[in-house]
Every structure is written in C-alpha cells, then in structure tokens.
C-alpha cells in the first residue's frame, strides 16, 4: 500500500455522534450480509436504511426501530455499510467487533481491524487476518502474536499512546489501507441485531448467549414459532418462581397468549422494569414527593406509614393499576416484563431474548438456580 502519514489526527472524533463510546470495525469483504453474519447478526430482523445517510440519522432510525437497545433491554444493534471493497461497522456504545470470536470469523478469508473506546476512555484495538488475531492493543500497549512477517512491527513504528484513538486508527489504516475520516460516517446502512457469540469461558451461569452457546445458536437460527414458544416458556417460569402465576391478570394473559390484555400493560407500567434490589430503581408511580417518615416524624408508631401505603393503594386503583404485584417484591417486576415480551408481536428474536433475559433476572433476584429455566427454554426451542 502507499506509505501513510506518520500519524493521523482524530481530534474530530470528540465532536461526532459516537464520542461517548463505540466500536468501529473494518472488514475486507464486499458483502455486508456476510460480515453481519460473522458478527452473529439476525438477518431476518435487519433494517435497510435506504439512501446515503449521516451516521447520526442512521442511529436515530435504530433507536426508533429497535426500542430499548440503548438502555440494555435488547440485543445489541450494529450498523454496516460498504466502503470501497470493505465493510465498515459501527456499534454505538457497543463492543462486539473487538472480540476475538467476531474478528476471527470476520477475517476468515481476508483482513479485519477494530477500534474500541468507552466513556471512561478505555481503548482497545485488534487486527486479524485469515481467521487469526495478529495484533492487539490495550490502552496503548501493543501485543504482537506470532513472529509474522514484520508488517505489524513496521506499522507500529513511530506510534505512541499519547493520543490513544489516533494511535489505534493510524495503526488500523497502516494495516488495512482504510483511513477513518469524517466522510466514513456517511453511507447506506444496514441495521442488524446481533446475537453475541459465547465467550471463551462461557459456563452457563447466566442464561444469556454470551454465557450459553446453545441458547445463542437457538436465538440465531430458530424460526418465529420456536422463538415465541421459548419466550412464553421463559415468562411462565418467571411468573411461577415470582409467586404471581395465580394473579387474575397473569392467568388471563397466559390464556389469551399471544394476545396482550390491556391490564398487563398497566401492570407493567406500575412495577417498572428494574429489579427490587436495584439501587437505581424508580419507585412505583404512586410514590408521593415527600420522603418516607422516620420514627421521629411518627411517634404514634407507624400510623403515617399505614396512611401512606393507603394513599399509594388508592392511587394505583385510580390509575387502573392491578393490585397484587409490587415493584418492591423480589421477582415481580422482572416476571411481569418477561410476560410482556412474550406477548410482543414484532421482531420475535428480540422479544425472545428480552423475555429470557427478564426471566433470568427474576430467578437471580429470587436466588434460584439457572437449570430449570434453561431446561424450560431449550425444551420450547426443540419443540416442533
């Protein structure tokens, strides 16, 4: 390739839409879908964002079409675009592309390079060729794997960690010939939900594709019917272990599945989507503005607390929120949200992932072993 400048400047990254954290990956291939599949993409859920668009517009479409992605409630979504015989991949606040499992697959017959950074300015880079990782950089410290042919050492010449992103993108450009510029942020993007490949030390301790390879394979390949049955199985398990399976709204929802009764939506709003032990959990909407009374405020010994709970109960009834479930009860919120996802009609792979994830959160909150949930979900996937 032509000799590249000693050091490329990337100060403009601080002003771009990915400044908080991202992963940018270059893969030498002319088929976007092939590269997306190497990332674990669920291609039947892909959305083509037609016409050349700025990246920030494409990210807006992702947020609209895949709600919940940015708050950790769904599968990660990546944007893929062609770039002169290469494919460039953007993950906003993501990091699948930097993983060994992805780079080895993506570079199977060619080359791939990835640059990652997060809000804490942790930076990582990697370069792979023909399915092998040849170089990795973590916070400015390079590691070269194998003797190689001297290309990596030559590409590292004159680079230092003073400007971590400049270091990584310059190294990537020297090894691939693809220079990352502001123009790289424009393209015809394909938005694809990703089912993560299992980690090397995956041990099944969580029912997530990163930790359970069989679950990941099922989420990537199962048809709509199997995905919906798996979501329902996860939700049934969750409401059972949470002790709310006999609630009238839960009974009606399971009987009406795959329809979603309006009362289930109200129940979901009333309990929210955080675990009861989450310190950042937002209390139920009935919570008044004032703080909880202390013993000094309430010398009568609990009368204020009783009155406060009565006010909350009245407010829930006035809002039409079903009684009998509570955001403060372990497992309730997670189980209700799992059931909501099991009645979702669009994007069945995403809905199944969310239902399984919420069910897994419910059983963890209640300190149940993962075995029973895994068996229920995988049995549903296997059913014809």
Brief characterization of the structure:
This protein is of the alpha+beta class and 384 residues long. The chain is built from 13 helices and 9 strands.
Task: Write up what this structure looks like.
Residues 269-280 have a biased composition (Basic and acidic residues). Residues 269-301 are annotated as: Disordered. This is DUF4192 domain-containing protein. It comes from Nonomuraea africana. The protein has 384 residues and is of the alpha+beta class. The protein has two domains: 11-193, no CATH class; 213-285 and 321-382, no CATH class. The protein has helices spanning 32-38, 55-65, 100-106, 151-156, 164-176, 213-221, 224-241, 248-256, 262-271, 303-318, 332-342, 348-365, 371-382, and strands at 22-27, 47-54, 77-83, 86-92, 111-117, 123-129, 132-138, 141-144, 186-193. Strand 6 (123-129) and strand 7 (132-138) form a beta hairpin. Helix 7 (224-241) packs antiparallel against helix 11 (332-342).
Keywords:
2 domains, nine-stranded antiparallel β-sheet, 384 residues, DUF4192 domain-containing protein, alpha+beta, 13 helices
Topology, please?
Blueprint: E1 22-27, H1 32-38, E2 47-54, H2 55-65, E3 77-83, E4 86-92, H3 100-106, E5 111-117, E6 123-129, E7 132-138, E8 141-144, H4 151-156, H5 164-176, E9 186-193, H6 213-221, H7 224-241, H8 248-256, H9 262-271, H10 303-318, H11 332-342, H12 348-365, H13 371-382
Antiparallel strand pairs: 1-4, 1-5, 2-9, 3-4, 3-9, 5-6, 6-7, 7-8
Task: Please trace the helix and strand order, writing H or E for each element.
Answer: EHEHEEHEEEEHHEHHHHHHHH
Strand order of the largest sheet: 2-9-3-4-1-5-6-7-8
Q: Main beta sheet: strand number and arrangement? A: 9 strands, antiparallel
Oligomer: single chain
Structural domains: how many: 2
Mean pLDDT across all residues, rounded?
87
Strand content: 15-25%
Low-confidence stretches: 283-293
Helical amount: 25-40%
C-alpha geometry: elongated
Number of helices: 13
């Amino acid at each position: 390739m032509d000799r590249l400048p000693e050091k490329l400047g990337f100060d403009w990254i601080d002003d771009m839409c990915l400044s908080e954290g991202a992963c940018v990956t270059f893969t030498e291939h002319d088929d976007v879908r092939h590269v997306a599949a190497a990332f674990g993409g669920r291609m039947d859920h892909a959305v083509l964002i037609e016409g050349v668009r700025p990246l920030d517009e494409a990210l807006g479409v992702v947020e609209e079409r895949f709600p919940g992605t940015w708050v950790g409630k769904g599968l990660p979504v990546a944007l893929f675009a062609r770039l002169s015989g290469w494919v460039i991949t953007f993950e906003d606040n993501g990091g699948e592309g930097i993983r060994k499992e992805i780079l080895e697959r993506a570079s199977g017959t060619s080359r791939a390079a990835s640059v990652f950074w997060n809000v804490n300015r942790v930076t990582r880079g990697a370069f792979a060729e023909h399915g092998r990782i040849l170089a990795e950089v973590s916070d400015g410290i390079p590691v070269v794997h194998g003797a190689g042919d001297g290309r990596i050492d030559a590409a590292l010449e004159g680079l230092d960690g003073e400007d971590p992103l400049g270091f990584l993108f310059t190294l990537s450009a020297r090894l691939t010939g693809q220079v990352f510029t502001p123009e790289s942020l424009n393209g015809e993007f394909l938005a694809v939900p990703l089912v993560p490949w299992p980690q090397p030390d995956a041990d099944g301790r969580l029912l997530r594709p990163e930790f359970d390879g069989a679950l990941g394979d099922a989420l990537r390949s199962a048809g709509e019917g199997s995905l919906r049955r798996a979501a329902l199985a996860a939700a049934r398990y969750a409401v059972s272990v949470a002790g709310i399976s006999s609630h009238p709204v839960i009974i009606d929802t399971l009987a009406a599945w795959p329809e979603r009764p309006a009362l289930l939506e109200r129940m979901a709003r009333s309990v929210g989507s955080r675990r009861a032990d989450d310190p950042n959990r937002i209390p139920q909407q009935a919570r008044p503005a004032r703080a909880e009374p202390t013993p000094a405020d309430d010398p009568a010994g609990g009368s204020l607390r009783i009155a406060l709970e009565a006010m909350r109960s009245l407010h829930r009834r006035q809002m039409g929120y079903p009684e009998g479930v509570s955001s403060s009860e372990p497992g309730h919120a997670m189980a209700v949200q799992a059931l909501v996802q099991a009645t979702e009609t669009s994007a069945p792979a995403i809905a199944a992932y969310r239902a399984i994830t919420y069910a897994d959160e419910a059983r963890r909150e209640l300190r149940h072993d993962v075995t029973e949930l895994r068996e229920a979900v995988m049995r549903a996937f296997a059913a014809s």
